[in-house]
Amino acid sequence: MNIVTIVQARTGSSRLAGKVLLPLCGRPLLQRMVERIRLARTPMTVVVATTTEPEDTDIRILCNQLRIPCYSGDAFDLLDRHYRAALLYDADIVVKIPSDCPLIDPGVIDRVLSTYITAGGSRDFVSNLHPASWPDGNDVEVMSIATLQEAWKEATLPMEREHTTPFIWERPERFRIENVTWETGENYSMSHRWTIDYPEDYQFIRTVYDALYASTGGRFGLHDILALLRQRPDIMNINKTYAGVNWYRNHLDQLRTVDTRHTRMPGHAASHAENGTLTTTRENI
């Protein structure tokens, strides 16, 4: 079975333009992101799916320089972009990992993939996001090419096209879905923000890389980051304003399986205890 992991990437972010090319320990964020995915033990092809827009030429040049397979597609129809990239690289199994997760733990990727593979074809879709429990920024979604094709053919809502997989995970009555939860039993998805969308997120991620990359050769994982945050709570405070903020907040009127427990508006930050207990506070930003 040919496993193709697709990393969607573009430079046109409205909140932090060019974020995928910002430097982390001397190399572009997108390069560090691909390096971390390739540390997973499961054999796979990693493909960057960017857009045909002129502003994303630098992404294509970077991929060419690093010999990373790259596909250029529609800027806003990510479902089409993922499907066509999967077809181009002959995927049997498609893994979706967004490029805003440069702290993703390779072990988490293996865990979700193993769950899908071990199911032996009895699952259409496996992820660790529905509902989420891992620190935000460890996003892994796995599906068969046939399942992705069904979504590509039938999804009509702009939200379903833009975010690739809602057509699937919003229909548990139709698709055979499994969720992988964090084995600790804790839920840090709304309190620990390790993804990048705002300048504060970049400052947080850059600080983590500066603290851990050299001593580990880039092979630091989830538990190394948690240990660092226990030692340096000031790092945790850098982007806490945006803890729990995600794209769900803009589509709560359309989503059936997601509600206000799974998202937060900017300015509502989550304080946390080590066991994952959350308290919501209002902050001025």
Describe the structure.
The protein has helices at residues 29-38, 57-66, 78-88, 106-118, 145-154, 158-162, 166-169, 199-216, 222-231, 233-236, and strands at residues 3-8, 23-24, 27-28, 45-51, 70-73, 93-98, 125-127, 141-144, 177-179, 268-272, 278-282. It contains ten helices and eleven strands. Residues 269-285 have low confidence and may be disordered. It is of the alpha/beta class and 285 residues long. A seven-stranded mixed β-sheet has the order 5-4-1-6-8-7-9, with helices on both faces. A two-stranded antiparallel ribbon has the order 2-3. The radius of gyration is 18 Å and the shape is globular. It has two domains: 3-179, Spore Coat Polysaccharide Biosynthesis Protein SpsA, Chain A (Alpha-Beta Complex); 199-271, no CATH class.
- The whole-angstrom Rg is 18 Å
Structural class: alpha/beta
CATH superfamily of the largest domain: Spore Coat Polysaccharide Biosynthesis Protein SpsA, Chain A
- What is the count of β-strands? 11
What is the general shape? globular
Q: Looking across the biggest beta sheet, what order are the strands in?
A: 5-4-1-6-8-7-9
Q: Which fold name is given in CATH as the topology of the largest domain?
A: Spore Coat Polysaccharide Biosynthesis Protein SpsA, Chain A
Mean pLDDT: 93
Largest sheet geometry: 7 strands, mixed
Distance between the termini: 48 Å
Please mark out the parts with pLDDT under 50 across 5 or more consecutive residues, or reply none.
Answer: 269-285
